[in-house]
Amino acid sequence: MNVAVIGTGFIGGTLGRAFARAGHPTVLGSRTPETDAAAQDSGAATTTVADAVAHADTVVLAVPTTAVEELLTAHGDALAGKLVVDAANNITGPVAHHADLVARHAPKARYARAFNTLGGENLADPDFNGTPADMFYSAPESDRAVLDALITAVGLRPQYLGEGQQDTVDGVLRLWFALAVGQGRGRHLAFHTLER
Ligand SMILES: NC(=O)c1ccc[n+]([C@@H]2O[C@H](COP(=O)([O-])OP(=O)(O)OC[C@H]3O[C@@H](n4cnc5c(N)ncnc54)[C@H](OP(=O)(O)O)[C@@H]3O)[C@@H](O)[C@H]2O)c1
Question: Of 57, 76, 135, 159, which sees the most CB atoms within 10 A?
Fold first, then answer.
């Protein structure tokens, strides 16, 4: 798979470096590719947003929620046939319905929600004394293998919730905020599903 990560800040940089280090060809899409150092020594390439989208079959959105519609408007046609993985959150208001924006501006793209339910510290270091944090995600069934590979590349354990389950994923985000912030337990907090 060829993956593009749009946004090269805390989350985009963390994810893009992890994907590249796991061996997935990764391009970071930046507004300032000439000076952007987010790739570090990971092997990820850095280019413009348009070039990154063009060269990828999977496009991870790691930009502020306020930039999502602008991005989709500008690159909606180029996203046709590609998988959009939405990691963007609106932490000061209601969770944005980016899935609706993708359907409107990039109707030929597929939509997945992932990498948004935990503070970025846990994406950078997902290991809790030998136990990986779970990453709950929503995606079309046909894209499960892609998401499982990307989530595993970060060191997280994939937990598939089904197609169109972005509201359930965002419920996990609200749970994380309730505990980490609301209850003051701190950002180094994650979830691990138990079964028997
Ligand atoms: N921080 C967390 O713990 C966390 C966890 C999960 C999900 N998220 C979500 O992940 C997203 C990114 O968060 P972050 O913490 O990584 O923020 P950040 O460090 O501020 O990075 C944001 C990135 O988006 C880029 N960007 C902004 N507008 C853009 C546009 N129109 N086109 C292309 N790139 C644009 C910025 O580029 P410039 O340098 O050019 O401004 C920057 O590289 C947010 O939606 C956030 O809610 C964050």
Answer: 135
